[in-house]
Amino acid sequence: MTTNHRFIFRILVALIIAFTGVSCDDHLDDLRENPNAVTSIDDAALFTKAVRSLFQGTTDQSAYRFSGHYGHYLVAGSTARIPDQYGDGFDGQYNDMFTGMYGGVIRHIEEVLQITSNTETKNELRYAMADVIAVLGYAKITDAFGEIPYTEGGKGKSADILQPKYDTQEFIYKDLIDRLSKSIQVIKTADPAMGYPDSDPIFNNNLNLWMRFANSVRLRLAMRLRFADTEFSSQVVSQCANEPLMESNDHNAFMIETEGNGNNWFTYRTGFPSIKMSAKLIEQLQQTNDPRLSVFVEPDGNGAYTGMTNGLNDAAFGSSNFAAKSDMGIALSSKDSELYLITAAEVWLLRAEAALAYDNDVARADEFYRSGLETALRQWELDEASINDFMATPHGSLMGVNDEEQIGVQTWLALIPNYFEGWSHIRRTGYPEIPQRTAPDLAKGVTNGILPKRFLYSSFELSANYNNVMEAISRQGDNKIDTAVWWDIKD
């Protein structure tokens, strides 16, 4: 290479580096100004992403490490089981769950809501469908933490809100219910062509199913307020009865994960640390001869069903022969096992609870209960004889004694494998009963053996949004895992 060539080459290299530097700086500036900016991205792709993130969230840390244990469904091995000892030293996990929901479901769905409400790209049906997904995302975050950024949540730098205020859970819940009511009215009369014909991973753009879905979620949220605001809850339950609800397993909101290793419970069951099913769950199924035992639980090496006791201290766990206990059932933990957001079985059982609580109509409650139980059994494709045999037992109908508890326990079972919702159900109803830990081999943690009631605001959130977090704490109560959220007031 001649001297002139070297000179020209150096100039070209310098120009390329300079141009690249300017381009990178411009790109970084764009990210600082609006990390969630949507330019050419289609809202359909964002909608699909948000929906998939919502389903994936049913198998995230909130289920694997926390609510799966708190709901007494499972026991994970190694360090993943530590939350089962009712400790609270999980700052990183609390932050990951908080930011993960906002960075996944909420971020994408807020972008969809923005696009579908803009004058140039307005689409009322797509907005209504997206709003149902947004409601489920926000409901999970507030159920986990209590007060959260809501009216200013998920907006980020695009709205110049770096420190969003926190809203009370009462306000959030009532607004979520109002949003669902508005979505239902849009969906019930809309033209399906205006929806997401090729981008709906739940119902393939079937608006009848979407209407049932939205109304069923509304019923779930209304019943969650049963003890916090009985009058409002009863009013909304009555409104739900006037619109179609989920009634058969064809109406279930489910998805099969097809990317990566598929359903995360497959990875948890086959990887390290492994998962064993809870002794409480197995005992409930065995005591009632429930045919779902073989669906939810795998036999151990001896062909028996043996569960792990939740909450063992380290010494007791070390001598428990954890590896020999029963695994999660294959139907729940295969690569192509279905993930659920809400099912017809849950909806029937909520209706049974409402009929008993609000109408004192035992006959109607029993009718709904039987529909819910049979639907729950059929969800897992049990043989007809097993279903009929169980429905003919005393457990197949309300027995007039502890009917609320019977409905509550069956709802707990019907929520499998949505373990986070199972924990929320227990917090709200007290069923199944999770006694305070007093046995010497059980860890009492920081709650004196009482079931945890929420996740903590992390140190990361406190440092980034201190004043707003502290205001929420001043209203809600101490930032502790045994501080109840607003709707959790049942004795």
Summarize this, please?
The chain has 491 residues and is mainly α.
Describe the structure.
There is one protein chain. This protein is mostly helical and about 500 residues long. Among the domains are: about 265-335, no CATH class; about 345-415, no CATH class. It is about 55% helix and about 5% strand. It contains 20 helices and 6 strands. It has a two-stranded antiparallel ribbon. Helix 2 runs antiparallel to helix 4, helix 2 packs parallel to helix 5 and helix 4 (about 90-115) runs antiparallel to helix 5. The longest helix is centred in the N-terminal third of the chain and has 31 residues, at about 5-35. It starts with a helix and ends in a 15-residue tail after the last helix. It holds the Pfam family SusD-like_2. This is SusD/RagB family nutrient-binding outer membrane lipoprotein. InterPro entries: SusD-like_2 (IPR041662), TPR-like_helical_dom_sf (IPR011990).
Provide the descriptors you would attach to this structure in a database record.
single chain, 491 residues, mainly alpha, two-stranded antiparallel sheet, two-stranded antiparallel ribbon, 20 helices, 6 strands, 54% helix, disordered N terminus
Taking the alpha carbons of the first and last residues, their distance comes to 86 Å
Instruction: Write down the overall mean pLDDT.
Output: 91
What low-confidence regions span 5 or more consecutive residues with pLDDT below 50? 1-40
| Secondary-structure class | mainly alpha
Biggest sheet architecture: 2 strands, antiparallel
Pfam families: SusD-like_2
Protein name: SusD/RagB family nutrient-binding outer membrane lipoprotein
InterPro entries: SusD-like_2, TPR-like_helical_dom_sf
